Every structure is written in structure tokens, then in C-alpha cells.
Amino acid sequence: MSVHEATSEAGGHQLSRRALIRLGLGGVLGLFLLEVLGTFLSFYTPRKFGVFGSKVTLGDPKTFDLASITTFVEAKLFLSHVPEGFLAMYWKCPHLGCTVQWHPEEPSEDNLAKSGRFHCPCHGSIYDRHGQIISGPAPRPLDMFKLSLSGGKLVADTSDITQRKHWEPDQAFKA
Ligand code: FES
User: Fold this and answer.
1) Across the strands, what pairs with 1?
2) Whose CA is nearest to atom 1 of ligand 1?
3) Among 84, 118, 128, 151, which residue's beta carbon has the most beta carbons within 10 A?
């Protein structure tokens, strides 16, 4: 091997070592930038809160008294037990989206109980225990989630929202 060839070979090794170091540094920098981007995106991306947006097990239907209203905070719904069956209603007001509240002390809007109705704190829409709009600016009753039975328990699918024009008895789920 000539002297010239030996120098070239050594230079080639040096070059590939430098390239490797550069590649390694580039990789570390790339990972760092991905981490920063991930943090940025997770900060600005809305997260699912609790179990809302999925199927939620509510419980054994026998444990909910007739005329009861049960609030499931993580699922953002009210479970209403009416003579026709069960209604799982989204607590978001169909007017401008405020959170409707159940007021057990307010006068009832039906004959099932002496008191209790839904009341939106923003513009005063009032709904009965079927979610039917009684007064106020809301354009329709409270929206509903589909109910089913699984292993003897009521399950609400909070990814499936149904709008309705009026309360109809066949909207209630019989368990
Ligand atoms: S948001 Fe409920 S009445 Fe306006």
C-alpha cells in the first residue's frame, strides 16, 4: 500500500467518525424537538375529561328509584327514572351550551313528584324530568345518550348524542 493510499484511508475513517457524531447529535436534537412539540401539542389539545365520550356503566336499574334524578359528573349526564323507563340526558343546554342543573327544591313541572326540575343558570331555560323544554330560549329538549344493558347494568354511550324535537314515551329505555 502506498503512503498516499494509507492517508486517504485514515481520512475516510475520520470522516465517517465525524459523520457518526453529527448523526448522533442530530438524533438527540431531533428527539428534543419532538419532546418540545409533544408538550406544546398536549397543552393545546383538548383532553377527554373523565369518561365522557365513551360507554359509561351507570349501575343496576333496580337501584334507581322511580322519579329519581341521578347526576353522573364524569359522564356529564342526568339519569332520570320515569314511569316509561330511563332517560340519560346530556347536561349541556341546547341553547348556548351552559351546564344545566337539577333543582330538587324548585316546583315540579310534572305530576310524578311535588318538586324538582332542570334549570339552566345562563338564560333561565327550564326543563321537566323528561328533559322537555318548559320555558326559556332553548330550542329543544335536553339531548340524550343511548342506553343499553350490559351484565344487568345500565350503560350510557356518551359518544352517541341524540337530539329530539319533543319528549316522546318511546325515548325512554325500558330495563
Ligand atoms: S345556555 Fe341555557 S338557557 Fe342559554
Assistant:
1) none
2) 96
3) 118
The answer to whether residues 119 and 103 touch, using CB atoms and an 8 Å cutoff, is: yes
Q: Which of 122, 126, 133, 134 to mutate to test the pocket of ligand 1 (most atoms within 8 A of CB)?
A: 122
Residue 83 CA, distance from chain mean position: 28
pTM exceeding 0.70: yes
Q: Look at residues 21, 22, 1 and name the one whose alpha carbon lies nearest to residue 10.
A: 1
CB of 135 within 6 A of ligand 1: the answer is no
Cα gap 90→138, rounded to integer Å = 14
Rounded CA-CA distance 14/169 in Å is 82
pLDDT in tens, 8-67: 444 455 557 676 667 666 666 656 565 655 555 544 444 444 489 999 999 999 999 999
Q: How do residues 116-149 score in pLDDT, each as one tens digit? A: 999 999 999 999 999 999 999 999 999 999 999 9
